[in-house]
Amino acid sequence: MHFKTYAFLAIFVTILVTVVTAAQISVAIENFSFKSQTVKIRINDSVQWTNKDRAGHTATSDTGVWDSGMLATGASFSRTFTQRGSFPYHCAPHPGMKGTVIVE
Ligand SMILES: [Cu+2]
């Protein structure tokens, strides 16, 4: 096969593998805490927070990387993590609620 064909195939397979293996991790907001409090994910995975409390909550990055805004009961917020690192977050109205997303 021609080199260009190989290059195209390599890119295609890389994209396919990324799409197929990217996972979505669910974090419940329940009883004024994030469950699980710490999640370990891979690059390109997403985390979806769902508020299961009657009170409103947020998932707000400690360092300003993201902010879900206020989530009412049953509301969800999803974010895809494209960089490695440890991302601590909290709930804006309840600063005692803390969590961490670790991207490996
Ligand atoms: Cu809260």
UniProtKB/TrEMBL annotation:
<keyword id="KW-0479">Metal-binding</keyword>
<feature type="domain" description="Blue (type 1) copper">
    <location>
        <begin position="24"/>
        <end position="104"/>
    </location>
</feature>
<keyword id="KW-0186">Copper</keyword>
<dbReference type="Pfam" id="PF00127">
    <property type="entry name" value="Copper-bind"/>
</dbReference>
<dbReference type="InterPro" id="IPR052721">
    <property type="entry name" value="ET_Amicyanin"/>
</dbReference>
<dbReference type="InterPro" id="IPR008972">
    <property type="entry name" value="Cupredoxin"/>
</dbReference>
<protein>
    <recommendedName>
        <fullName>Blue (type 1) copper domain-containing protein</fullName>
    </recommendedName>
</protein>
<keyword id="KW-0732">Signal</keyword>
<dbReference type="GO" id="GO:0005507">
    <property type="term" value="F:copper ion binding"/>
</dbReference>
<dbReference type="GO" id="GO:0009055">
    <property type="term" value="F:electron transfer activity"/>
</dbReference>
<dbReference type="InterPro" id="IPR000923">
    <property type="entry name" value="BlueCu_1"/>
</dbReference>
<dbReference type="InterPro" id="IPR035668">
    <property type="entry name" value="Amicyanin"/>
</dbReference>
<feature type="signal peptide">
    <location>
        <begin position="1"/>
        <end position="22"/>
    </location>
</feature>
